[in-house]
Amino acid sequence: VGPWSIIGPNVIIGANSVIDSHVVIRSNTTMGEGNRIFQFSSVGEDPADKKFSGEDVWLEIGNNNIFREGVTVHRGTEVGGSYTRIGDGNLMMSYAHVAHDCIVGSNTVFANNSGISGHVEVGDWAILGGLAGVNQFIKIGPHAMVGGMTHIDHDVPAFVIVSGQPAAVRSVNTIGLERRGFDKATVKEIRKAFKILYKRQLSLRDAISQIEVLAADCPELAPLLHSLTTSEKGIHR
Fold this sequence. Notes:
Layout: E1 6-7, E2 11-13, E3 18-19, E4 24-25, E5 29-31, E6 36-37, E7 42-45, E8 58-61, E9 66-67, E10 72-74, E11 83-86, E12 91-92, E13 97-98, E14 103-104, E15 109-110, E16 115-116, E17 121-122, E18 127-128, E19 133-134, E20 139-140, E21 145-146, E22 151-152, E23 160-163, E24 168-172, H1 174-179, H2 184-198, H3 204-215, H4 222-229
Parallel strand pairs: 1-4, 2-5, 3-6, 4-7, 5-8, 6-9, 7-10, 8-11, 9-12, 10-13, 11-14, 12-15, 13-16, 14-17, 15-18, 16-19, 17-20, 18-21, 19-22, 21-23
Antiparallel strand pairs: 23-24
Helix pairs in contact: 2-3, 3-4
């Protein structure tokens, strides 16, 4: 633990973690092993929600995460289930923000100044570009990518790249999938599903039905189907 850092009550920090100087871990925070928090970060702070009035709420962080300079992460609210949760192996670059009641998976990247509002869910391996902003209650699917300076106000399905102002769906995150070990045959099936969803002018219900047929022989499409069938805010399309 570096100099001038403050660690408040009910904080548990796992082995082999490094807390640099000028870090505040406010309270009610549990961290796993091997985490690194760089200077001027604020972790486990009270939620920035007018409904919060001092309830006993928490932040849970997994293992081997990196929080670069100036990152802010807030605890949950009682209305939202009392927990903010972050998985393993995530990289939060400088000044990224995770608001109250968010659920962040594992191996994500939040580039500089990107931020997610309250109650947002971010799937494994998703990437948020610099200055990207995500509205409340949005879901970002696994292996999705949000371009820099993009405002997200609808759900982003798994495997999809969304970028621009206004936000628009661009393509499948092919390079990201290949880097993570998806074979060419699987990527080809994902691209077929993308065309069904975005190129054939089908209703969402009909697109889901056709993708379900593909998924019978390609179980790797399950995250995409989950993104589509569980969306409550509607998808970027």
